[in-house]
Design goal:
alpha/beta; five-stranded mixed sheet; two-stranded antiparallel ribbon; about 55% helix
Length: about 525
């Protein structure tokens, strides 16, 4: 897994979100300012910034552009080496992703023993989605991993609450301080705190007063965990700016109803609550989506389940299903069901109602938690169970190795593999701007001195990588001759002039399963 992620980190150019997070993290470290990217809390970006800090990147303190321009300015306009800076920014996330693998191993071993732990670890380490997003300087994997860590510590708290419950608060606070999408899991985990305390202090005396005392103790423990989590969030903001200087952004959307109450009453820093308002504003907006060859406006409730079905190895889907069945049906494993299944179920239910059908990264917690659930397959006492489990893990291994090093556009064999993913999905499922450097290499090797017309979806600067290209949408179609190079996400959304150009061109090559090269003219 480390080899796969480091290879991806070395070879891939910046994806769309990464420059924003890297630039914001550098501002945190150098200027102690919270003014950029308030829609996400600071912790994940502080972790990302630990890598570039070793390079002492140059950044103009007087720069006043928006967060997108900040990322471009840092990488391409300040005299820094973007290849080196991006690798350094990705390495802390890679290390964190590997450490979360040890959490998966420990959690699954607690549930199902050493063999179950190894099955879970194999599925985690071979997950194309975790490899893909764990090798990027983004927030999805860190937030999901901190939540998984909190749930594992909750499971262990069933035996020793005083030792583990404070750590649960720290891990839960870290998740909430990394990405606001972790907030729906908070009430679930607080309920699990009560359950863990109940289990730890249970006796055969279930009288009314004993029951009330246990419930009161569990509620008190949940309050303590919540206070530690809140303190963790405050600590991350104060680590950036001890004076917590903050100006509310202009044109901030107004929230009403339960959302408004949550924003107003949560005991969190003002920048965090304003970030929640920004996120709620996104949820009230309409975006475009692409699923199974159809481009649409809005969102589909079944988008994430369909995308997970397409982008998960077939053997992994089988082991997930068997593991969930084991946890639900086997008495020995059934106590773990609320811990392993309830948090991802609640998070997925919330994500299904989201407005942004941009990729499985919004549900990257699913392969993490279900890797742990899959450990339950070893508890079935089937004669051929171990052989079948080993065969399915081997199938997953072969499927994942075959996509190396192109993990972002992975899809399983039932949907044609990575080369066909763009026909069914778009954006961070396939093409997130990661292959601009590979495109530059391909142009130099196979198509030197040819006229290039480029429609690129990403945050990289083509000219920096030696790509001298023009936008074909700015001239009459009759003038577009030579090579037409189009990001696959742009193909999915193509209409009007671009769609006509694509239809009248001949595909001749592809790069990284995310960019298609066409020939126009004789």
């Amino acid at each position: 897994m480390a080899v796969a992620m480091v290879t991806a980190a070395v070879e891939q150019t910046p994806t769309i979100d990464e420059p924003v997070y890297v630039g914001t993290g550098v501002v945190y470290v150098q200027q102690h300012s919270l003014r950029y990217n308030p829609e996400h809390p600071p912790l994940g970006k502080l972790i990302i910034a630990t890598g570039p800090a070793f390079a002492h990147p140059r950044l103009d303190a007087a720069f006043v552009g928006n967060q997108t321009a900040l990322g471009r300015h840092l990488l391409y306009e300040s005299g820094n080496d973007p290849w080196r800076l991006m690798l350094l920014a990705r390495l802390p996330v890679i290390l964190l992703t590997l450490l979360f693998g040890l959490v998966v191993l420990a959690f699954a071993r607690d549930l199902a023993g050493p063999v179950g732990g190894l099955v879970a670890l194999a599925l985690y380490a071979l997950s194309p989605d975790i490899i893909a997003h764990g090798s990027l300087a983004t927030l999805d994997v860190p937030a999901a991993g901190f939540l998984l860590t909190a749930v594992w510590l909750l499971w262990r708290a069933r035996r020793r609450p005083p030792l583990y419950l404070p750590l649960v608060g720290v891990a839960l606070g870290a998740a909430v301080a990394t990405k606001m999408s972790a907030l729906p899991a908070v009430p679930v985990l607080l309920l699990l705190v009560v359950m863990s305390v109940w289990y730890a202090r249970r006796t055969h005396d279930f009288g009314r007063w004993r029951t009330a005392r246990l419930l009161a103790l569990g509620v008190a423990a949940a309050v303590v965990v919540a206070l530690i989590a809140v303190a963790m969030v405050w600590a991350t903001y104060l680590a950036v700016d001890p004076r917590l200087r903050w100006t509310t952004p202009d044109n901030l959307s107004v929230t009403h109803g339960l959302r408004g109450l949550a924003v107003d009453w949560l005991p969190l820093p003002e920048p965090y609550r304003d970030g929640m308002r920004i996120q709620f504003g996104f949820e009230n907006s309409t975006f475009g989506g692409f699923l199974l060859g159809r481009y649409y406006h809005g969102s589909l409730w079944y988008y994430l389940p369909a995308a997970l079905l397409i982008k998960t190895p077939l053997g992994m889907l089988a082991l997930w299903s068997a593991g969930v069945a084991a946890i639900v049906t086997l008495p020995r494993l059934r106590p773990a069901a609320p811990y392993v299944l309830m948090p991802p179920a609640v998070l997925l239910a919330v994500a299904l109602n989201g407005s942004r059908d941009f990729g499985v990264r919004y549900a990257v917690f699913v392969p993490m938690f279900l890797a742990v659930a899959a450990a339950g397959v070893v508890a079935f006492r089937w004669r051929w169970g171990p052989v079948l489990t080993a065969a399915l893990v081997l199938f997953v291994t072969v499927s994942t190795l075959r996509t190396y090093p192109y993990y972002l556009p992975y899809s399983n064999e039932a949907f044609g593999g990575p080369s066909k993913t763009y026909l069914r999905l778009h954006d961070s499922n396939v093409d997130w701007g990661q292959d601009l450097g590979r495109l530059a290499d391909r142009m130099r090797q196979r198509y030197p001195d040819e006229k290039i017309w480029l429609v690129y979806k990403g945050s990289g600067v083509p000219s920096f990588y030696g790509i001298d290209a023009s936008d074909p949408r700015t001239v009459p179609p009759s003038e577009v001759h030579g090579l037409l190079v189009v990001s696959d996400s742009s193909i999915a959304k193509a209409d009007g002039r671009l769609a006509a150009l694509i239809e009248s061109s001949r595909p001749i090559d592809e790069v990284g399963h995310s960019i298609t090269i066409y020939r126009r003219g004789p």
